[in-house]
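Reopening this one. Same input as before:
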Amino acid sequence: MPSMENAHALIVGIANYQQIPALPESVLADAGLVRDVLADPKLCAYPPANVEMLLDHHATQETMRAAFQRLVARTDADSTVFIYFTGHGGQVSDGPQRGEYLLPVDVVYTSEEQLAATAISGDEFTKVLQSLPARKLLVIFDACHSGGIGQAGASQAVDAKSGLSENYYDKLKSGRGRVILASSRSSEYSFVMADAENSLFTGHLVAGLKGGAIGVSGVIRILDLFSYVQPKVVADQPQQHPILKAEIEENFPVARYPVALPPTPIPAESPSDPFQADVFIVHHMLPAHTGQKSADQVWVKKVLAKGLKAQGLTVLTPDYIPGMMGASQIDAWQAGIERSRYTLVILSPGFLESSFADFQATMAAHLSLEESSNRVLLALKEPCHPALKFRFRYMLDMTDEDEFEENMERLAFEFKQEPGKL
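Same output, byte for byte:
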């Protein structure tokens, strides 16, 4: 059974600020729920002594700084570190105090200078993360709450806005093994649905940690967790899009898969929808008239498609679309894309040189935008540097042959789900 003995967590939840508007009590419930699921030996299995939580008046600037240093002191290169912050974040747009801030419970907000002196600046928090020796670090923010930091009194004339910017998240992720997961884009709010005890994001985060996310080899990995949480949140609230920023070489485990649950089952049947196929696979192909096949073609036919079909999936590839014999290639590709629930784009050096494969991928992406549904998935077969339109999306890394079977499980699981909203 996978061990999480060297896993450590720091959870900060602040609702009742001393000098700025309070947040809903759900903030405290969120922090407590995350702490409970991490420390549960039947769930994530972090050692309880390694899970520290600061709530409300315990989360001052001084105590947060001390907690950061304790985390640095007790972790090593092999540790898994999980930091969760729910509360107010703020930004100063101009001037000498320009930047982002995490706001402790005792933050003073009467001037930009006071804000900078009593909050946790982005530079300070970045240095904390850089000082952590752990090569597996996940930082989660549920900090863009509707209502914002506002103005608590007439004396507070600070030119600041609530939330944290995506540039801030980019800075924090610098360094090996750093992943930043935020509850929403910087231009959006993080919602608490009517009558809900927890925020929408944290509710789905915890559901994923409890076994909703796919658990391959007895663990829940960071990208599998995000793949579960993001579409769930968007489906419930289309105006909220969780984001992930990462500098990782490994899709590392963040929790043990619940011991009371069997491995995440792949649905026996595909969803009841009008699609004739589960997936259309876009990849580098050589023209049929050459009588030759690219390395990607051989791999897709003999390895990937064969494995997916063994999982009960219906697979289409550009070289043959039923009923389209004699049609133009563009019409055939269009039919394959439209008839399939998903399009899987196989990225490789060969793909980068293929204008035909790029055209197919662009068609599929355009259809997704028209429908506002996430029907395009990416898989990296070989190391390469694809265009930005591909790099900005999460892609499944299939370059490691030792993880091939696990990745096939992930693909089969995804292809039997209804597409999420963009």
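So the earlier flakiness isn't reproducible anymore. For the record, The mean pLDDT is 87.
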